[in-house]
Amino acid sequence: MSTTHSERLRELLEPLVASQGLDLEEITVDSVGRKRVLSVVVDSDTGADLDQIADVSRALSAKLDETDAMGEGEYTLEVGTPGAERALTEHRHYVRATGRLARFRLADGGELVARILRVDDDGLDVEVPGVKGRKATARRVAFGDVDAARVQVEFSRKDKHDENEKEEEA
């Protein structure tokens, strides 16, 4: 998809997504055989539920039907959210990932896995988990020191809140 086409689609669709209280995160057009698939990724600070996704999908579909933005050929519209292991590319993504574990590829070539505790305009306060019985350590990471970051899926996270409730029940 050309940059011009991508920009045109973004200009057309972003106001509709915003009117639904969501952010337009990504637009891609892929060819699948003879058909094309227009994928639209949306999100918000509180996430997007199925009803919101259905509403925005209907609004986008109606808008695309009344324009020639996708040309003459057939296409399929898919609307969804970024997913569990989303890339962190915007300031708002880091804010939304507060409390989550993330893997950072650092500008100096290093790698860091840490929990995002706080986000401000300059960077992040993170907690690096302790290894082999050691306590977790706090660290400051400037945005300029991050080449790439991605949220990590946690299957067995034990929150301090959960542990406190168990102690109270005992």
In brief:
Helix content is 29%, strand content 34%.
Characterization of this structure:
The chain has 170 residues and is an alpha+beta fold. The chain contains 4 helices and 8 strands; from the N terminus they run H-E-E-H-E-H-E-E-E-E-E-H. The strands form 2 sheets. It has a 5-stranded antiparallel sheet. A 3-stranded mixed sheet has the order 1-2-3, with helices on one face. Helix 1 packs across helix 2 (50-65). The longest helix has 17 residues, at 3-19. Residues 161-170 have low confidence and may be disordered.
Task: Give me some keywords for this one.
170 residues, alpha+beta, 5-stranded antiparallel sheet, 3-stranded mixed sheet, elongated
Poorly predicted residue ranges: 161-170
| Strand numbers in spatial order across the main sheet | 7-6-5-4-8
What is the overall pLDDT average? 86
* Class from secondary-structure proportions: alpha+beta
DSSP helix fraction: 25-40%
Helical segment tally?
Answer: 4
First CA to last CA: what distance?
59 Å
**Largest β-sheet summary:** 5 strands, antiparallel
What is the number of E strands?
8
Gyration radius, in Å: 20 Å
User: What is the element string, with H for helices and E for strands?
Assistant: HEEHEHEEEEEH
Name the beta content range.
25-35%
Estimate the global geometry from the Cα principal axes.
elongated
